[in-house]
Amino acid sequence: MSSKIRKFARTFALCASVVMAAAGCGTTTTNTAAAGNAADKSRASGVASVAYAGSLQLVNDQVVGPAFTRATGISYQGRGGGSYAVAQLIAGHEITPNVFMSIGTGPVKVINPAFTTWAVGFASSPLVIAYSPESPYARQMEAIAKGKAPLSTLFTLMAQPTFHLGRTDPNTDPQGQYFILMLHLAEQALKLPAGTADKILGGVNNPREIFDEQTILSRLQAGQLDASSAYLPEAVQRHLPYIQLPDTVNLGNPADAATYAKQSLRLSNGKVVTGAPIEVYITALKGTPATAAGEAFVRFILSPQGQQLYKQAGYTLTPPIVYGQKRDIPSSILGELGQVQ
Length: 341
Fold this sequence. Notes:
By secondary structure, the chain is an alpha/beta fold. The protein has 16 helices and 12 strands. Helix 3 (about 55-70) links the parallel strand 1 and strand 2 (about 75-80). It starts with a helix and ends in a 7-residue tail after the last helix.
């Protein structure tokens, strides 16, 4: 693990343990953000009810949510799951959050235009392979992680019939899609034997490998899996050993978007997903309770303070990417876009 990764792991742990006692874990809020927070206190009531991709659970519930409440006085409530599954619950009126955070824009399209016509991307994260130190393959994976064995060895291991691999459902969760796309990118980039990706997967919907996004890493920590797909911040926040992948494979570098786009995946419903950089998107939902509280949460996430918290949690901040109708973004939120760094 690099010194940079260790540093942000310690920072994240410290922020979570003190529940943001300074509402920014040592960061300074600009006058603009402070004024916005004061306005939020006077305007918003109710609860910022945030439905998010399960991979965002720790950073949202342990760090960002408490910091938001301290900064604005507005209560926070979070609920996670596979991004597509959560979007379907919203579309079916089974849950009524006022904020939705997804990985990629696909899930946002599920609730467009009934609940929103826009979203803002603000951070990216590469895919990694997290592994269990209790695995019978742990020593081999540790050697790969330390660069003492070629990365291609990892894919040979994962293709073994006795290797217990975990991934999420590609039909309900973007991470499950990214993992499959990653395997095919790796097959080409690393010049692996033809069919390696398919051999590892055992079928796109192989039930032996598919687990719920919110429990998959807990299973890994319990020693039930040898390795699992994960986003880098997840692996670090949970103190899991992991193997990094090159940018041309990990779907975490916007500069490699053209390479990612060369791979595609057909889902069970016939929809085709094309490779694209992993990006966290956020939007406020209309027609749900306490919309002002939801807008206040989005403002906080896109403010310098909220951005710094995501950076400390291991995400790479990106220039704001507006999906959909920019004109529909509330003016109070639109004002923060120029401050995203």
